[in-house]
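wait is this the right file?? whatever heres the structure
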């Protein structure tokens, strides 16, 4: 199992081409009502969309094995299982000796890890992340903390407008998780064009968190941004993260980057260049961060690789069912990971 958290702990188990994927969420208090329809809603947001997603279709019905009684937490670890029904392991048979470029196959094989179905690196396990994260989301919402993510860019198509939490919530109705119908059309076209060429595209997901009180978050290695960054890099294909204006801050002067304070129904910031965090703690402004996701490495174009049996350079053409872009499906995964981190920090008294 793969684990995170100290007080509210989260563990992943299973495999893409095994009987199921699942998670164990431990540390939530007894007596908390869990809205199962809400869990199913967020899991459905992760499902591939027609024309821009993988051909692998799964029911993705969460089974609560333990931890709930009549929809109420009983204080025991919550075990959630999601069955794998559409399995084709034969699509992956050669990758233990012909590693796919852009995948974890080569270093994994060097460690003795079986990469059939992507092994522990498969995006399939994020179904369980969303299941557990959707429960954690309900826990943090009790503290008036809400989380939403949307697609900031796909390939060359970029959303350049300032977006609010309300805008982000509206993205749930669009297949690409864009904030408008116009961007949704352009982003879909970007994905479809790449797919027609046997290629793929990446993009950027932005996440907004509201309701964090001033001072919320740990310090140094337990800082909220530090732990969120660690969690985001636990999502397959995440290659970068920035908070607030991020790297653009390096081009500003202090007079430009500082978020100055004022009184307006409490302490507020005049701007939010730092993304709502200073010293790893909330300054009361919305927490804003963005994650960059690389293009899906599984493409049908012929690529160069090596044959580990013969120590020779060879070619590979990847078959199977793969997303030409994972960004539309990853927004809800980012939300779920964020909920798990914040829930644990609440449990630790931060």
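ok assuming it is, sequence goes like this
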């Amino acid at each position: 199992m793969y684990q995170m958290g100290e007080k509210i702990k989260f563990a992943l188990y299973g495999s893409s081409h095994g009987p199921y994927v699942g998670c164990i969420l431990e540390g939530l208090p007894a007596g908390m009502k869990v809205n199962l329809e809400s869990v199913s809603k967020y899991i459905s947001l992760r499902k591939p969309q027609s024309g821009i997603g993988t051909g692998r279709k799964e029911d993705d019905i969460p089974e609560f094995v333990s931890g709930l009684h009549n929809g109420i937490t009983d204080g025991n670890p919550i075990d959630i299982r999601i069955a794998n029904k559409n399995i084709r392991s034969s699509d992956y048979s050669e990758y233990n000796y012909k590693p796919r470029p852009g995948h974890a196959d080569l270093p994994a094989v060097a460690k003795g890890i079986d990469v059939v179905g992507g092994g522990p690196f498969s995006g399939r396990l994020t179904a369980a992340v969303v299941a557990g994260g959707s429960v954690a989301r309900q826990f943090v919402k009790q503290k008036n903390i809400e989380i939403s993510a949307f697609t900031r860019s796909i390939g060359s198509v970029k959303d350049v407008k300032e977006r609010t939490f309300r805008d982000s919530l509206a993205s749930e109705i669009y297949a690409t998780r864009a904030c408008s119908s116009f961007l949704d059309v352009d982003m879909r076209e970007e994905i479809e064009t790449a797919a027609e060429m046997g290629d793929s595209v990446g993009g950027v997901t932005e996440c907004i968190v509201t309701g964090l009180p001033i001072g919320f978050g740990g310090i140094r290695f337990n800082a909220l941004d530090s732990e969120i960054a660690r969690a985001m890099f636990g999502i397959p294909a995440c290659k970068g993260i920035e908070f607030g204006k991020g790297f653009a801050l390096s081009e500003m002067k202090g007079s430009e980057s500082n978020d100055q304070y004022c009184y307006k129904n409490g302490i507020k910031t005049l701007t939010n260049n730092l993304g709502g965090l200073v010293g790893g703690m909330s300054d009361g402004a919305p927490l804003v961060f963005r994650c960059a996701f690389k293009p899906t490495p599984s493409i049908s174009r012929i690529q160069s690789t090596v044959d580990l049996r013969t120590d020779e350079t060879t070619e590979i053409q990847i078959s199977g069912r793969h997303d030409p872009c994972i960004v539309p499906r990853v927004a809800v995964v980012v939300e779920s990971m964020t909920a798990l981190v914040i829930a644990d920090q609440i449990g630790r008294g931060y």
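Helices lie at 36-45, 105-110, 126-141, 165-170, 181-196, 224-232, 254-257, 327-347. so i think its the right one actually
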